[in-house]
């Protein structure tokens, strides 16, 4: 018993250290795959791509066993077929927790239970027992002394918010008012989080031209086309942010606050049928790369700027056995052999966030005209080697101004920082410890212990210091504090 308790304390403290590092991007694992790798191979693939967070749609015992001692944080899923039984029987909930959670601790780092998947919009007849199922599972966790380690929530789709724009007027479907209130009360009481499935792909394709493609792909828009909430005057640089904010405002409409939103599904299909022209490898690569960059900046949407948006990509592999349109089978970011479907930098920037390497990249949402000017300057007067971003070269894809500017900015910065060159480019650049390399496109990093001097190149050259750089130092101090607590706890346990 003592060893089990020690293991759980270690897991909890480890989780605190991980969470202190900021926002993360994880992945969902669907299993409708003809040649699905073995559980041990799946874990090896996750590790090879530094994927630190995984969501399962079930509680597959072989996979949970394979995940033991991997440090990967796992959300286990109650399937939609199981929700009704658990909601009607506390004994069934207790048995489910004992079999699918407690039996795998402390070796497997289970951090949450996702109860069903989009229950209210896909199986509405089960809706009335959804929250009772969550309470029963939570009570089972309390009985096992695991409630402080594992949260309970339920993923819901954006369809439960009929009119998400403008975000400030968004509200949940009134027909579910009673259930939603109970759900939010549960999340508040248990200090859990709202699980949101947010798909700008569907928001764009069903919008009939209401919003530009660039808005769905995190690409910056010219001033005359920027998306603005007329009530708050908040500018939305992406449909993703608008969807998350619509959820926060919907929660607020029920007079609840301090319930963070975690995006449990998002992504973009890499292939589709003739009537799905936007399902392309280029769009998928652009969306996912920009999403990772967006999440890794540790900020929230306009209404909640200090709450990072932890996010899970849909999904790890293409599920060729799924029914429906062609695009439905092509959301995977990796092939079953572990190679990438398209160039991207996997996965959680948090794996390298405390690295000694720093990179200079384009800011999310930076004005495209300024980025183009900065790119031209870096590749010209700045002396950056921009061959790698030419067509047919390793860093040409994703083919967009933000990624190309990032490569040029970084090449300039790494060459010139010793002579005083800085990372600014008329306010369009920022320093990061998240390695932007992807596939065969390699970004050179440099130690952040040596500084850049006061050299200020003319016009478009880097001329500033990273806003908020001190916050990174504060975060490191916090991590040190956590490690001290961790060490103290271990001394207490083993003495």
UniProtKB/TrEMBL annotation:
Q: What EC number(s) does the entry state?
A: 3.2.1.39
- What molecular functions are annotated in GO for this chain? glucan endo-1,3-beta-D-glucosidase activity
What EC class is this?
hydrolase
Per the UniProt record, the source organism is: Cucumis melo
**Pfam families membership:** Glyco_hydro_17, X8
Q: Which gene encodes it?
A: LOC103491954
Give the transmembrane ranges.
Answer: 475-494
Alphabetized InterPro entries for the sequence: GH (IPR017853), Glyco_hydro_17 (IPR000490), Glyco_hydro_17_plant (IPR044965), X8 (IPR012946)
Q: What is this protein called?
A: glucan endo-1,3-beta-D-glucosidase
Q: Does the keyword Signal apply?
A: yes
């Amino acid at each position: 018993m003592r060893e089990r308790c020690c293991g759980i304390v270690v897991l909890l403290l480890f989780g605190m250290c991980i969470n202190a590092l900021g926002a993360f991007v994880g992945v969902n694992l669907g299993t409708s795959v003809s040649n699905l790798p073995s559980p041990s191979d799946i874990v090896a693939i996750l590790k090879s791509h530094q994927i630190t967070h995984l969501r399962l749609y079930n509680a597959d015992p072989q996979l949970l066993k394979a995940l033991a001692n991997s440090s990967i944080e796992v959300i286990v899923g109650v399937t939609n077929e199981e929700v009704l039984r658990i909601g009607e029987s506390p004994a069934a909930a207790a048995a489910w927790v004992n079999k699918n959670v407690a039996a795998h601790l402390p070796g497997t780092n289970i951090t949450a239970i996702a109860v069903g998947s989009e229950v209210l919009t896909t199986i509405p007849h089960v809706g009335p027992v959804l929250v009772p199922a969550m309470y029963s599972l939570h009570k089972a966790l309390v009985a096992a002394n695991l409630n402080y380690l594992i949260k309970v929530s339920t993923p819901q789709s954006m369809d439960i918010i009929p009119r998400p724009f403008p975000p400030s007027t968004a509200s949940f479907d009134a027909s579910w008012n009673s259930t939603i209130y109970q759900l939010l009360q549960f999340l508040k009481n248990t200090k859990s989080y709202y699980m949101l499935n947010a798909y700008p792909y569907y928001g764009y394709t069903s919008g009939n031209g209401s919003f530009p493609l660039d808005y769905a792909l995190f690409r910056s828009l010219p001033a005359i086309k920027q998306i603005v909430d007329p009530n708050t005057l908040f500018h939305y640089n992406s449909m993703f942010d608008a969807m998350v904010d619509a959820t926060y405002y919907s929660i607020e409409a029920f007079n609840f606050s301090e319930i963070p939103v975690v995006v449990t599904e998002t992504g973009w299909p890499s292939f589709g049928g003739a009537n799905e022209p936007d399902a392309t490898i280029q769009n998928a690569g652009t969306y996912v790369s920009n999403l990772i960059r967006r999440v890794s900046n540790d900020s929230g949407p306009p209404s909640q700027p200090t709450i990072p948006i932890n996010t899970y990509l849909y999904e790890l592999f293409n599920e060729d056995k799924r029914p429906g349109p062609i695009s439905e089978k092509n959301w995977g970011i990796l092939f079953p052999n572990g190679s990438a479907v398209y160039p991207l930098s996997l996965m959680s920037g948090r794996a390298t966030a405390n690295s000694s390497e720093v990179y200079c990249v384009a800011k999310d949402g930076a004005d495209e005209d300024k980025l183009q000017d900065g790119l031209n300057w870096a590749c010209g007067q700045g002396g950056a080697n921009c061959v790698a971003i030419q067509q047919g070269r390793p860093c040409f894809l994703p083919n967009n101004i933000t990624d190309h500017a990032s490569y040029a900015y970084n090449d300039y910065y790494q060459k010139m920082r010793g002579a005083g060159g800085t990372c600014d480019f008329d306010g369009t650049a920022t320093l990061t410890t998240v390695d932007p390399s992807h596939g065969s496109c390699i970004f050179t990093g440099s130690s952040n212990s040596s500084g850049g001097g006061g050299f200020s190149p003319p016009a478009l050259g880097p001329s500033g210091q990273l806003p908020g750089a001190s916050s990174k130092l504060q975060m490191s101090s916090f991590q040190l504090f956590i490690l001290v607590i961790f060490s103290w706890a271990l001394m207490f346990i083993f003495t």
